[in-house]
Amino acid sequence: MSCGKKERNKKDIVIAVIPKVDNEIFDQVKVSAAKAAAELGITMTWEAPTSNSGQKQKELIENLIHYKVDGILISCNDEEFLREPINEAAKAGIKVATYDSDCPVSKRIFYIGTDNEKAGKICGETLLKLYEKNKRKPEQILVLSGGTTALNMKQRLKGFRDVVGADKINGVLYSLEMADFGKELLSIKLNENKKINGVQLLWSVPVLSGVDSVPALARYMKKGGVSMFFDVSKPLLRYIKANPNCATVKQDFQAMGYNGVKNLYKAIMEEKFEPEILYDVKVIDQSNAEAELKLME
Asked: % helix / strand / coil in the chain, to the nearest 5?
């Protein structure tokens, strides 16, 4: 059977890549996954859900089972809800792998992405260093997360709490992966509670267009508040370059898409593949923001 698999026409192989939602962060996965597929001579299809719910991803998986794709690479919005759809796809002979946000209790064959609990710890450690650098003490830290059911968000929050202490966290806001809603939540909380003296964004899409796109956050920062973000964009890096009281971490989304497709292809061809590929995040602050900006040119 193994030989038969390897003799298949590569042009007939289809790998579907499913993001949590369509946004500029996952665009990096889309581009790098397409590059890997082109190099392999196979077809990659990008299947973005119309909302951030597990139900929409479930519907996509069911549709892909119907069309008999060879592989699915998915970032899971809901680890528990998607367990059964992933298992059904595996039962149908489809190789399923996860990236960015895992579903470890399912029959997915590997996870590729950030070590999210470690990333949460790094965020906590960096935020504490920002407090020290700016001669402040961590007292009331506001946390913005993405969804409530995605494993990567749970892992980041756990890692962050383990470092800073649950007693230092004023509250956790859940944006449900919606940028405008995240901006609204941040604005309301910062305007209501002037005692907040630390902000941790474990999901930073609301500020990727620039910190000034959230006026309440910009005002808070100008008053000397410290903030730790997650992920990068040119506007955010420019802001960090100009402000010593904030930092962010960079994930390797390009590797997730590129190596995710290549590793899944090996599994489809019944070749040896990696059962887990973890990446560390890179801390970016005022000292290296300029260098990171040049990499994005």
From this structure: 50, 20, 35
Q: Do residues 186 and 173 make contact, with C-beta atoms less than 8 angstroms apart?
A: yes
- Residue 276's H or E segment, with its range, is strand 276-279
Which tens digit of pLDDT belongs to each residue from 73-85?
999 999 999 999 9
CA 106 to chain CA centroid, Å, is 20
pLDDT of residue 4: 42
**Which residues make Cβ contacts (< 8 Å) with residue 221, sequence separation at least 6?**
211, 227, 243, 245, 246
Fold of 2-113+252-279: Rossmann fold (3.40.50)
- Both tokens of 65, joined, read 């089972």
Q: Which two tokens stand for residue 166?
A: 């649950």
Q: How confident is the model at residue 168 (pLDDT cuts 50, 70, 90)?
A: very high
Asked if residue 34 lies in contact with residue 63, where contact means CB atoms within 8 angstroms, the answer is no
Residue 7's pLDDT band, with cuts at 50, 70 and 90, is: low
Q: Which fold has domain 116-251+285-295?
A: Rossmann fold (3.40.50)
Q: Is 204 helix (H, G, I), strand (E, B) or coil?
A: coil
